[in-house]
Amino acid sequence: MNKIDHLGIAVPNLDEGIETYNRLGFNFLKTEEVPDQKVNTAFFEVGESHVELLQATDENSPIAKFLAKNRPGLHHICVEVDDIEATLAKYKAEGVRLVNEEPVIGAGGCRVAFVHPKSTSGVLLELKEAGGPGH
Ligand code: ZN
After folding, report:
1. What is the per-residue pLDDT across 23-81, written as a single tens digit (0 to 9) for each?
2. What are the structural domain ranges in the chain?
3. CB 110 within 8 A of CB 128
4. Which of 2, 21, 32, 135 has the most crowded Cβ, counting Cβ within 10 A?
5. How far is the CA of 125 from the centre of ligand 1 (A)?
6. Residue 98: which of 83, 80, 119 has the closest Cα?
7. Residue 117: strand, helix, or coil
8. CATH classification of 3-129 is 3.40.50.2300, yes or no?
9. CA–CA separation, 105 vs 66, rounded Å?
10. How far is the CA of 51 from the centre of ligand 1 (A)?
11. What is the value of pTM for the model shown?
């Protein structure tokens, strides 16, 4: 694993979330819709890493489901890996519970896959392949 790429924070309202993090002095980068995940996102730069705010675009979005069960707040952590397929294969062999058995397209067109919180001490884990588009 190379680094923590970003922390994902679920928000009910993206504009309010952006305002909040701007006020806190985070460096706003961009907003981006990720249709695969049914979310609108906003990225802030924090050194080499980012904070990603996520708002649901649909009631079937994972973020809508999360907010129905939890308060707004930390939704996932994302780590960058060199080879996402190799990492998923290793996890599968070890019986790690995966949300995505194959990579899907995340923000920035990157290949990502999520690991279930049951296998990560309670926090959804996103794997992101290094060197994809947007780098
Ligand atoms: Zn993310």
Report:
1. 999 999 999 999 888 999 999 999 999 999 999 999 999 999 999 999 999 999 999 99
2. 3-129
3. yes
4. 21
5. 9
6. 119
7. helix
8. no
9. 20
10. 9
11. 0.92
